[in-house]
Amino acid sequence: MLLATYCRPHTIRYAIEAVLQQTHADFTLHVVGDGCDDETERIVRSFADPRLRFYRFPKAMGFGYVHRNTVLRQCDAPFVAYMTDDDLWFPDHLQRGVETLVERELGLVAFRSIQVRYPNLLDPYFFAFDWRLGPWSRWLRNWFMGAVGCVHRREVFTAVGYWDESLFRFGDRDFYHRVRVSPVPSSYEDRVTVLRFYAQHWDPCYALVAEPPQKAWVGRLREPGFRAEVEAALAGPRDLLARWRQADDFVAFAVRSGPRFLRFLFHKARAWATGSRR
């Protein structure tokens, strides 16, 4: 599995802990430093686990997809998963991913995520996964499906290619879309396996809290009753406050990411026009 990082020494420790506590323990975690600082490297190397490997590259364009591809091409594991440096997995994320791929003969499986909001509020109702508005909701879900929620077979790279190194951002959305529209069998499972701390919400707020919220939540994810709490919340009604938060998130993401999304579409359209599509 691959974890790409730039400079988040305050959260990457807990992301790695979430990986190392997976019930599917047969893996290698490749941490890809894309221009990361010395403190990030120090924290990564503080883990005395033989399953962890660290690579430090100079800063690449955008989110550094070229470095991810460099490491992915060197590996030969039959299954691939992606962690971020500020999110957390439930302990059974990898196990459920691999089992679903094998039992259903899929090439890729994607799982639902929930989020933690500032200052420390669990919000299971992120709009992109919770709204039920037909094709519009499916489009939102597909767009917000980050790589952190996906597990796929290595053969997917042969079918659709690696990450698009020409992109500045949204590489995970692009990769997921290419798999979905390809002949590769894939599936979305409405099962929560990822706890997200969206950078849009949290990056301005880490300085306001005594310690990163991931520190406490990585422990809560191991509690047997925690998943039952989440599932009970998802099965229940959404009150007005939950709907207001969904609307607020939708507007905030649209304002911040809308122009970037349009640039992404322009880039992809130009690539198609010039015959360099991936």
Largest sheet: 9 strands, mixed
* SS class: alpha/beta
Total strand segments: 9
- String of helices and strands: EHEHEHEEHEEHHEHHEHHHH
Q: Proportion of β residues?
A: 15-25%
User: Per CATH, which architecture?
Assistant: Alpha-Beta Complex
* Global shape: globular
Low-confidence stretches: none
Which percent range fits the helix content?
A: 40-55%
What is the CA-atom radius of gyration, in angstroms?
A: 18 Å
**Global mean pLDDT:** 94
Distance between the termini: 22 Å
At the first level of CATH, what is the class? Alpha Beta
Domains, number: 1
Question: Could you say what the CATH topology is called?
Answer: Spore Coat Polysaccharide Biosynthesis Protein SpsA, Chain A
Query: What would you give as the CATH superfamily?
Result: Spore Coat Polysaccharide Biosynthesis Protein SpsA, Chain A
Number of helices: 12
Question: What labels would you give this structure?
Answer:
globular; 12 helices; 9-stranded mixed beta sheet; Spore Coat Polysaccharide Biosynthesis Protein SpsA, Chain A
